[in-house]
Amino acid sequence: MIGACDPLASPRPLGPLLDLAPRLGREARTALTGTLTGSSRSDEVYDCLLADLSAYPSLLVVEDIHWADEATMDLLRYLARRLPNVPALVLATYRDDEIGRTHGLTALLGTLAGYPWVYRHDLAPLSREAVARLATGRTVDTEQLYRLSAGNPFIVAEILAAPADPIPATVREAVAGRLAGLSGAARSVVDVLAVLGTRVPLPLLAGILPAPEEALDEAVACGIVRTHGQVTEFRHELTRLAVLEAVPAASRLRVHRQVLAAMRSGPVAAEDLPLLADHADGAGDPAAVLEYAPAAAVRAAALGAHREAAGQYARALRYADRLPPERHISLLEGHFQACLLSSQLDEGIASCRTAVGLRRALGDRLREGDDLRWLSGWLWPAGRAAEARQTGLEAVRILEGLAPGGELARAYLNLCQLACYAHEGVAVVAAYAEKAIAAAERSGDAGVVVQARFHAAAARLLSEGHGWEDCEQAVSDARARDLSPDTGSMALVMCGLAALRREGARSTAAVSRAETYCLDRGLPAYLLCARAWGGWGLLHRGLWPQAADVSGKVLSHPGSPPVARTLALTVLGLVRARQGRPEVWPLLDQAAGLVDPECLLDTGLGWEAPIEAAWLAGDHEQVQADGRRGLAALANRSHPWLSGPLACWIRRAGGEPPPVPAAGPYALELAGDWAGAAARWDGLGCPYDAALARLSGDAPALRQALAAFEALGARPAVARTRSLMRVRGVRPIRRGPRPATRANPYRLTNREMDVLKLLDEGLSDAEIAARLYISPKTAGHHVGAVLTKLNVHTRHEAARRLHHPERE
């Protein structure tokens, strides 16, 4: 039986009982009518309802009792005292942010708290993870969404429904509804609190409004704001913004000026600098903004809050035209550094270009060269590799003409990094590394020394196959010296190294380490690139739904650098191609359009992915043509993990590739040792690549490849393998799924159903492997196949399908 209270100016007497009247017995209905007409007492209807609840096991739900009338509250008191003697459960719901100390419900709750058979269940706000999950597939900053909503499900849902509107209309209306019943004094308190900011000390509020205590209590009871000790705050930041939007401009200006004067009248604490800058801006006081905003930015950057630092620098730059050129440039330099570290690349690069021009106009060659180095370093993740190299060379040319110092060391290091990313060879990278180390040792820059050694080792690893331990040691040294963001940069590169070398275990460990470090240090650009490389590593391991899920989250983040977006789009395109799903080429074309050809060549993905997609589509001419173009573009580079796969694709398409450097498994396949290549791929944890190598093998190898492709859900590869088996006369060929698989609504095999049931128990791959007496790697492949066939992204979603097949 379900009844509800309504938000009426005069609540319906016994409104919930009126809702459920048709479910009541005849005596209860008669008593209810008599109570409402005044012909009988209310306790008669209470007795009759209790008799109905005693007749058979019952659930009585009373919704929104914060809007209940006195008679309904008395009914709940009556029932609560007698519940131990009846086979009934009474469930009453209310919003605790809508009741204050004087609300009628408060007394009822106090009474109920004394009964040991009464239980209170608080619904916690959504967690960060829950908010991020709800936002999956949408281009929204999930951290900002969580900050604005404080996990309130209504606000989260409304923002996601209207992402282009800073304050959704429904939220405005909900806030207006809460405010409508406030007195004028309470509304003034709420307006002033909205202007003051997020957390307002009560003494500050009392300094602006005379005797605000009673009005503040009313605002708290309304559910708009809450108090913690001597601090008052809005329950949700978006609520504050909605209130602030409705405050007249003249009132906002007056309050900002009052607060600014009050806060400046005494000592200024460092933690008050952001508030002072905000109120100075609101008060229209440029001098105060230029006093407090840069100081707040410096403090935020020191704390690793680079996004906040960028915002404060941007605030100061609005008034920078009244500053001397040197101070103006200093603000620009602080702004672009904070922007770049907080993944606001476009804004950061724009400020950096402006700073370079102003330094050049002043004739300050040292700072011009250093700013060019900054610009070069961030053009690469922005997808402009060719411009990054030219800018980096220009920075070195300028700085080499001056006295050597730390700026030159960093400029050499930048060229060392770019040469490593572009696979220009061990000798070139080592030469820049030596110059960087020599200059850094003179200037005492330990970060440059560690990074130079790291990138020299990385170049050896990519070209010659050894150097991983040296890279690990460099990262450990940087962490021990607390060299940030150098550590974050190297941790990110380790993710790329592992992914490019197809090393699944190392990729997982590297991404986990980079995520932890970048989250702790507030380095979102590095974090998003690390996750993008992580998606590439999952793809190689055959975990395609997980790879697509990670890539989708990278794409949904508005701060993802172009390189990260290119990686993510490429992974999504390949997952679709391998699964035989549509809309492959739009994703790959979009990926190629985000960055310049040099950057595509550096990552290798822009060449290999379209070639594989063409092979899966049976276009061998396109495979060979694109493969040869790719090898021609790589002619002056040394990266066997890029040239090797292109040569193999040419060979798989029936062509004869030119001799090129090829990494381990690719070299074995090109030499005709398909068994050795497949074994190497198995050792690296790459089932799809192992199956591709076995296509050149004998009948058992073809059957093994077919089984692997089927387990992965690689429909185009399954079709190609079957065709190849027919051509070679390999028999027998299994004609589609077994009867048990065909009977399954999701086409799961018996073994995959076993795995799905164990997923429902929450088991890991290792635990599934132990239960089914298989290897963890095989268990992982089965889990990936289950997720693919169910068309879900997570193990939890797969488990839900076991109980709710109708939701397919």
What's a quick, concise take on this entry?
This is LuxR family transcriptional regulator. This protein is mainly alpha-helical and 808 residues long. It has 45 helices and six strands.
Write the layout of secondary structure elements.
Layout (H helix, E strand, L loop, with lengths): L1 E3 L10 H5 L6 H12 L4 H14 L2 E6 L6 H13 L5 E5 L11 H9 L15 H7 L7 H8 L3 H9 L7 H12 L3 H13 L2 E3 H7 L4 H10 L2 E4 L2 E4 L2 H10 L2 H16 L8 H10 L3 H17 L3 H12 L7 H17 L3 H18 L2 H15 L5 H16 L5 H16 L4 H18 L2 H19 L3 H13 L5 H15 L3 H18 L2 H17 L3 H13 L5 H18 L5 H10 L2 H7 L1 H12 L3 H14 L6 H13 L11 H7 L3 H11 L2 H8 L4 H14 L2 H14 L10 H5 L6 H11 L4 H8 L3 H15 L4 H9 L5
Helix pairs in contact: 2-3, 3-4, 4-5, 7-8, 9-13, 10-12, 10-13, 14-15, 15-16, 16-17, 17-18, 18-19, 19-20, 20-21, 20-22, 21-22, 22-23, 22-24, 23-24, 24-25, 24-26, 25-26, 26-27, 26-28, 27-28, 28-29, 28-30, 29-30, 30-31, 30-33, 31-33, 33-34, 33-35, 34-35, 35-36, 36-37, 37-38, 38-39, 39-40, 42-44, ...
GO biological process, one term: regulation of DNA-templated transcription
Organism: Streptomyces corchorusii
GO cellular component, one term: cytoplasm
